[in-house]
Every structure is written in structure tokens, then in C-alpha cells.
Design a protein that fits this description.
This protein is α+β, with helices and mostly antiparallel strands. The chain is elongated and about 70 Å long. The strands form three sheets. Strands 7-6-3-4-5-11 form a six-stranded mixed beta sheet, with helices on one face. The protein is built from nine helices and 13 strands. A hairpin with a 2-residue loop joins strand 8 and strand 9.
């Protein structure tokens, strides 16, 4: 794994034609893979989903939590990327019994879900029948669900099961775009190295952005660190039990032993005492 720090950078051309985001997510993805230990065939897809979810959040709603949820066809499983405004992200791999990987094609979907003020959710879902490639699925989502034309490339470079590098970029076409500028960018991207190539060369997020906007005057909008972190806590675990049926809670209390729960995202173990369970019963 490279030494480049995980970061996301944001810029807009001075003529308001393009907004560009570029991110290096190597350490974040590697930490998720270490916690989840997904099958090799899913690591690249998971890495791309994490990078893509971070980019969607930065592009559309940097101040909100965004989750990218990739569901395989025929109930084969789900990949989740969870990105927060403080730059932290985590991921989850859940394969169905008997499934060695997510089945793509007809029935597979990509959902982007953001948490609005007050806890309300906004979500958009697109079908993946036309493509099993995460980059293309993200572009379809941006076009169909957000009505924003975007060019996106995300990648995860592996050595066996080890994440060597991960990241991506998005070029968003803005309303002020004129045909001449669109032609320049189209020609540039046609010969632009793939994100996988840029990652193998050790390119930084700022380096990717500079290459994308070479010769175009632009203003930097932001430069933020990224890292893996899980938001689980004892309080959140106990709060999640509030939705459990009252009868089931009473059975857990009568058992007299602490309830052992592990976080699906990071694997951390929690013990909920009978006293805490009684408190939930009293509240309900």
C-alpha cells in the first residue's frame, strides 16, 4: 500500500464549466477490507463503491451522510459504503448463504441514500442491467437520479487480497458549459489514463485534479482528509435494541446474562447488561 494520505480535493473552473472532485481512498479501503475480509472477487467492487460514495457525497451533499448500497441480483448479497461529512467512511459485505459473489445483471441495483436534517432519508435507485462496472453505474445514477451529467472513474488496485491503491474522480458538467469547452474535456478524457493507471503511478488526489484541468484556470474549493472509522458505540447498540419486540426483550432479561453483540462493520464486541435491557422495557 502506498504512503499517499487519503484525501479528497474539490475545484471548479473559473468559467463555471466544470466541477471536479478527485479522491485517494487507499488506506480507507484497505481498513474496510481488513475488517470485512470479503472474497477476492468482491474487493475491487467494494473499493470502487467506497470511493464512488465519497465522491457522490462530496459532489452533491458534502454536509450529509451518504450510503452507497449495491444489491446483487437474485438476492445474492449486498455491498455497503457509508460516508460521513467528517471524512470518515466504513463498509460492509453481506453475501447470502451459498453465494460466493454478487450476481450482476438483471435485478442488480445501485442505491444512493443520504440522511437529511431531522433524520429523513432521500434515496435514488438505478438498475445495473446495462453494466456491472461501478464507475458506469455511478454515472447512470448521477444522470437518472440527480439529473447531473458526470464523468466518473473509480478503481481499486490489488496484489492478491492486498489493496495497493484506491480512489477515483468525477467531472461534473455545469449549466454554464459551452460546446467548445465540452469538446476540450471530451477529447482530454478520451486519451486520459484510467484511474487504475493513475493509482499505480502513485498519483495524489491533487495530481489527478491538476491533470484533469490542465490548461484550464480553476479555483480550489476544498481539500479534506479521509480515513476509516466506525460510528458504532455502546449507546448506539442499546438504542438499536429499542425496536426489538417487547416479548423478546423480556426473554432476554429473564435469561439473566449480558447480551453479546458484534458490530457488523468493524467487528467490535459489545455487552448489553440485563439492567440496560430492563431500562428499555421501562421506556417502552
Amino acid at each position: 500500500m502506498g504512503d499517499t494520505e487519503d484525501r479528497v480535493v474539490r475545484a471548479m473552473t473559473e468559467d463555471a464549466s466544470f466541477r471536479v472532485m478527485a479522491a485517494i481512498t487507499t488506506r480507507t479501503v484497505a481498513a474496510v477490507v481488513e475488517k470485512q475480509k470479503p472474497p477476492t472477487c468482491e474487493i475491487e467492487r467494494l473499493g470502487g463503491l467506497i470511493a464512488g460514495t465519497i465522491l457522490v457525497r462530496e459532489t452533491m451533499c458534502p454536509g450529509l451522510r451518504v450510503q452507497g448500497i449495491l444489491r446483487g441480483a437474485e438476492g445474492t448479497g449486498t455491498l455497503v459504503a457509508d460516508s460521513h461529512p467528517d471524512g470518515t467512511s466504513r463498509g460492509l459485505v453481506s453475501l447470502s448463504a451459498g453465494a460466493s459473489s454478487l450476481r450482476m445483471g438483471q435485478g442488480a441495483t445501485l442505491m444512493m441514500m443520504r440522511t437529511l436534517a431531522g433524520g429523513k432519508l432521500h434515496q435514488g435507485v438505478v438498475s445495473l442491467e446495462r453494466s456491472s462496472v461501478v464507475s458506469e453505474a455511478l454515472m447512470v445514477y448521477m444522470q437518472e437520479s440527480e439529473q447531473v451529467r458526470s464523468m466518473i472513474d473509480v478503481a481499486c488496485v490489488l496484489d492478491g487480497n492486498n489493496v495497493l491503491a484506491a480512489g477515483g474522480y468525477v467531472v461534473q458538467l455545469l449549466p454554464e458549459l459551452v460546446d467548445s469547452q465540452l469538446m476540450i474535456m471530451t477529447e482530454r478524457l478520451a486519451s486520459f489514463p484510467s484511474m487504475a493507471e493513475l493509482l499505480r503511478s502513485g498519483q495524489s488526489a491533487k495530481g489527478v485534479l491538476d491533470e484533469l484541468l490542465f490548461g484550464m484556470p480553476f479555483a480550489m474549493l476544498g481539500d479534506s482528509p479521509l480515513r476509516f472509522d466506525c460510528k458504532c458505540s455502546q449507546m448506539r447498540v442499546v438504542a438499536s435494541l429499542a425496536s426489538v419486540d417487547r416479548g423478546e426483550l423480556q426473554l432476554l432479561v429473564s435469561d439473566g446474562r449480558p447480551l453479546e453483540i458484534s458490530c457488523d462493520f468493524c467487528g467490535k464486541d459489545y455487552a448489553v447488561t440485563p439492567e440496560q435491557l430492563r431500562g428499555l422495557l421501562a421506556e417502552s
